[in-house]
Amino acid sequence: MERVIIFDTTLRDGEQAPGATLNLDEKLQIAHQLEKLGVDVIEAGFPIASPGDFESVRLIAKEVREPIICALAHANPDAVDRAWESIKEAKRGRVHVFLSSSDIHLTHQLRMGRGEILELAATMVARAKGYIEDVEFSPMDATRTSPEFIYQILKATIDAGATTVNIPDTVGYTTPEEFSRLIRGIFDNVPNIDKAVVSVHCHDDLGLAVANSVAALACGARQVECTINGIGERAGNASMEEIVMALRTRKDFFNLTTNIDTTQIYKTSRLVSELTGFSVPPNKAVVGANAFRHESGIHQDGILKEPTTYEIMDARTVGLPSSALVLGKHSGRHALKARLEQLGYTLSKEELNRAFSDFKELADKKKEVTDRDLESLVAEEMRTVSETYHLDQVQVSCGDRSVPTASVRLIDPEGNVVADAALGTGPVDAIYKAINRIVGVPNVLTEFSVKSITEGIDAIGEVTIRIESEGKVYTGRGAATDIIVASAKAYMNALNRLLAVKGKK
Ligand code: KIV
Ligand code: ZN
């Protein structure tokens, strides 16, 4: 079986999703997890875009040694130089140069002719090649470009030294059949195509990103660009877990393999969802909460008799935690540690102590503590690591005949206890106003959602919010058995992210 190169762009295109901004530490955590997952290439960022982007690519290149670390550059000498600077410490690095090729972009955005584009693309690839052997080129908006011009630009950039040529469906416009035709056309019409790997990069505006990607792989493309949970610009990118599991489950059809350790998929998905604040819909293929659940009686009957009757994948192959083992208030530290390790979390002694005390508190409120509760507990622990203000206490009084009133107590950056109170239109509004009186950073709440992590009246409620300040969106999450407390935690989480960015400025 031939192997497909998995090029992960969660940290670059994925992070371009509005509201998905990640800090340096979070990007590093994701990069390390992507390495465990076994991706071949990590596109770590767009270094010319900001000093923060440059620094995160540089750090990932220095610390994450197994995959190729790729830096993106538009066709501009400074951008190419900066991309190279950011990855020069990588064990294996790549510079990825892109330039628009469609007439729509050439006429309205770049105001350049095709001749100029050909020359610029080749010059910038040659510039990158002067620094490093591994160079990728992408003609942006390829699927709305005349195929003949794609053939020309690919020939010119391969001659200039590109070792991978990537065909982006930048606006998610193509269809599987049309994209297959384009890929076949490239193999038939680009004379030097044997000197480069053909890659594809599909967006999901019409919900066809994964279908288009696997169609291209069936026609000979051997690198696929994708993101965890399909996050990305607008409707997102092709979802990695879906592509990998499609290739694996239907190897009889594709006859292709990847280097991915599929048992790491679920954990990676949770981590990305947690850090970006982008929830995974329950019906999402492969990693959604319902992806392996069977509701109808006929299906349940079939599954009990023989799982393959209604299951095409085994949940264990994607690392889905089984909910069979349930911990309770009599479970000890050892049982908790063992279960967390099975779920893929290795905690330090101090972290385990804190997690154990949170676990005991939770077990007192809930009869059974499931794997999902434990994941939420660890996520909550992770959130408090880089706080500026810490939520120490929150109290609310509300009801249909009273004015909602909240009092909050925070620990400020110097370790002082600060308290305040406020009235609001509802309990959450009152809490947010009380917190605002202390923290004093103007922002607007743009999104607020609550979901329960497990079933039952005693389930943990998870609140996700987005706030906007000075044109930037910050996501916050909080979890607790009391959704009012979870709301307060979510707001503190978003505010702490905002303060971290402001602190850097
Ligand atoms: O969608 C796109 O065209 C891109 C390029 C930079 C490859 O993300
Ligand atoms: Zn893209």
Fold and architecture overview:
The structure is a single chain. With 505 residues, the chain is an alpha/beta fold. The chain folds into four domains: 2-276, Aldolase class I (TIM Barrel, Alpha-Beta Barrel), CATH 3.20.20; 289-316, no CATH class; 321-383; 390-504, Alpha-isopropylmalate synthase LeuA, regulatory domain (Double Stranded RNA Binding Domain, 2-Layer Sandwich). 42% of the residues lie in helices and 20% in strands. It has helices at residues 24-37, 51-63, 77-87, 103-110, 114-131, 147-159, 176-189, 209-218, 240-249, 251-254, 265-276, 297-305, 333-342, 349-365, 371-383, 427-439, 483-504, and strands at 2-3, 5-8, 41-45, 68-74, 93-100, 135-140, 164-169, 197-202, 223-226, 256-257, 390-397, 405-411, 417-423, 444-452, 461-469, 472-480. It has an eight-stranded parallel beta barrel, surrounded by seven helices. It has a three-stranded antiparallel beta sheet with strand order 11-12-13. Helix 1 (24-37) runs antiparallel to helix 11 (265-276) and helix 3 packs parallel to helix 5 (114-131). It binds 3-methyl-2-oxobutanoic acid and zinc ion.
What helical percentage do the residues reach?
Answer: 40-55%
Instruction: State the fourth-level CATH superfamily of the largest domain.
Output: Aldolase class I
The main sheet comes to:
8 strands, parallel, barrel
CATH class of the largest domain: Alpha Beta
Which terms summarize this structure?
505 residues, alpha/beta, 4 domains, 3-stranded antiparallel sheet, binds 3-methyl-2-oxobutanoic acid, binds zinc ion
